[in-house]
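Components:
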Amino acid sequence: MNTKTDTQLTVTEIQRFCMHDGPGIRTTVFLKGCPLRCAWCHNPETQKRERELLFYSNKCIGCGQCVKICLNDAHSFNGNHTLDREKCTACGDCAKSCCSAALEICGKQYTIANLLYVLEKDRAFYGDTGGITLSGGEPFAQGCSAVTLLQACKETGLSTAIETSGYFDPSLLEAAVQYTDLFLWDIKDTDDSRHIRYTGVTNIKILNNLKLASDLGAKIRLRCILVNGVNTDREHYRNISDIANSLSKCEGVELLPYHAFGGTKAVFLGLADNGKKEWIPTEQQLGTAKNILHSYGIKVL
Amino acid sequence: MIFYAPNGQRRPIRLSQETRQFAYDSLNRKYGLETQKTPAVALDDTKNFETLTPIEKYDLAISKIAREAPVRVCRGELISGAATLGSAIHHSVPATYRSEAIYTGVSHLTIDFETVLRHGVGYIRGSAEQSLKKHLGSEREPFLRSCLNCLDAFEVWHRRYLSALENIPDYERNYKNLQRVPFEPASNFYEAVQSIWFTFAFVRLCGNWPGIGRIDWLLGDFLKKDLRDGNLTLDEAREILAHFFIKGCEWICGESSFGNGSGDAQHYQNILLGGIDENGIDVTNEVTYLVLDILEELGIGDFPTTVRLNSQTDEKLLRRVSEVMRYGGGILAVYNEELIIQALLKDGYNLSEARKFANDGCWEVQIPGKTYFTYIPFDSLQILQRQTLDSYKNSIDYSDFEALYSRYVNDLKKKIEAILHDKQRLFTESGVNTAVWKWKPQIPCTVVSLFEQGCIEKGVSYFEGGPVYNICSPHIGGLADTVNSLYTIKKLVFDERRLTLREFLKVLKNNWDGEEALRMYVINHYSFYGNDSDEADLLAARLLNDFADICNGIDGKCGYRFPAGVSTFGRQLEWAPDRLASPHGKKAGDILAANCSPTPGSDREGATAIIRSYCKADLSRLATGSALDVKLLPASVSGEDGLQSLISLMRGFVKLGGFFMQPDVVDAQILREAQEHPENYQTLSVRVSGWNARFVTLSREWQNMVIEQNEH
Ligand code: SF4
Ligand code: SF4
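Structure:
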């Protein structure tokens, strides 16, 4: 048996028919775990490396089955349905027995063989442009396993892309570049003190990795989130342009205006809604960013 | 003067200001409302009307229509002729006797424009005269005389336009063209467009709704020659062709054509583009692109247009199709011609004939100008509920799934045989299974018969077996729901044994009352048709295969072919009140799946999974077609990535062996509905700055924002 295809990964979701995670039609695999803690995180369920229980209270019909099933008495009914996350070990028993899918385990284990089976399904639609995208979380938080998946995809002729925060062990890069057709590389902020404040980590490692990836010949698209009042300054746009211009194979820059959709997901995890409307950039700010990038000869995708 | 685009984008401008104004007026009901003012001609003053034969009455009507229908010449029109009697909009021959319409019109056919263009209507007259000579004194004589009478009427109407145009300035070209066409063969592009239009307008004026067929194939050579000889520029050609489309909107009047709320732009005037000709050569030409330009600029939805794709389809064409498709409104759909040609071969057509396929003016495939077509829709779900499961009476039981399934297929067979039987009773003199049969006389329909090959030669009308091919296609409806129902019973009762069949039927009989947990279990834990999971999909494939076996097993002693098809059109609304609760978690009266689409709310994996589920069946065994609707949000197909995705979606559809797909880029209206009924819009994805979110998973506030974004 091929040991490689036994490799396990922790997956929060596999989404087919993704049209904006790289070119063409793609299947995106969201991997669990991330070293960053962005204040504006859109996928909070991918932050922790461990399995978690999601509770969609709007779907619950109050049948009481989960109360009976849970050995840790995490569920209770007094007026309404409450879930005591302190007691929950994310064993998943209640999720299996919940008729209305109001409970869901986030972070299932997949072997590479199982993943390939799913990724194969849309091969007819990938064509010359599409393929698979690894996302997260930070896919490289799962180390060599993520690289092995990329390799396995390439070996079966699937085109690969990876969405990364850039914050990972540089020793992974050489192999990663070899098996990745396109890097969608996040630049959250070019100002390091703000970076630390809003994401919990320094951007030095990220920028060093980026340079290394570029030196290794990686094809890169920069993805820059715009958060009103945080990184919507001209200085930042100029820095982005400089970085883009310094790369050997840069496809261009995608500007991603902040939105608050992640907020609802946080609630399913039992966290406070982290969505902040004041963070949404204005059309004008977006325009300014575009203009500045253009003036430096950067293609805005 | 804005031509609305459901995706909120601005449409490009290529046409002249006058042409755009003409389009704007036409789309805004100017001519439709005018047409309604003169609904029909009256035959009340005809002596002894009641004693006339049906065909004599018909001929009188057509001749009076030709003499009395208002002649309309619109300001600045580049081609002339107009169907100006209001009853025609509602599918009647616009002639009344004592205020009653005398006959209904004919639809679901594409007439023989090829002969009109290449040989002229004069040639058709010659054939009719010859055929009359041959059949003098026989029972076919009255029909052939009717042909000549209707051609006379056509000439009368034609002369009225000539004299109207003769003396007004600025219409010299219209006049000059009409001096030749449609009675003589067209000699250039401009004449050809006028020829098709004038013939189409006359047939419509007489109450019929024909389709157009392969317009680029019909017109391509004319344009090629004109461009080569320098007689016409592309811009001029686009302008002329645009007037064809604009005039085709002259029936828009804000009133549903059938009075059932299904819209005022539904006259089955479909168009096909692209694909190969009878020799296997790609027909795509400048006209193909001009049509796409016009659809893009004016957003005219009255000529639903389907592009014939194959695995070799040029990237340039697909790109252009995607660009136009992205504006939304569902105007453009696609056929996979490789599979369709294969289906037609299996159905007994020869190769060069199969390659000529067009449709009936809707999406059902047929050979244009040679085919009588009708389809008989039926609800497969009610057969399961009311026959196989005997309306959930407790006397019903099956030992295992196979026993239930084979009984169901048997019930299906009985239904289809009943359809056949009814058809034969209606259309033939002798009973079932008789080698000697004869068509029963039907209501007159001479005008369309003129343009259907076979009718004149045989001396037999369109309704009476005249055309070369006669098709009666049983169309199975409720496919996804039947499959999901069967699948649920299999899982719940026979595999998991959660309850007995009798217990389950009792739950259904009580419309799931008090069984919400079980209902939720079924809805949430089973992977239904449309999610690319084999268990349900292969059941769909098996059912369609058995259905095709039943239809293909019928020998056409009555002269009909019985190819199978799948459709509901809008019937899922009409059937809802008659449907009982369904095993797959649906309650009595729920509105269920359309055409080949999944049960609303049951698909969770997105468009590619739906297409894969649909393509697992051997669709080449269903020769009149199977339609799949795919809804996409404007934002998800925007930008270069979005365009590439749309192209890839269509390529994948062809590669996997689909038949017909209508990708619809939906607007804010749909989003609002999705907000009210999230359960029905599970897969609707929306682009939010660099990624797709599933719309129904967004909070209300954010949904509203996305709606606003889509509401330009
Ligand atoms: S996941 Fe396990 S521990 Fe957590 S609530 Fe459910 S049953 Fe209890
Ligand atoms: S099992 Fe599911 S539906 Fe039942 S009470 Fe628990 S969460 Fe709610």
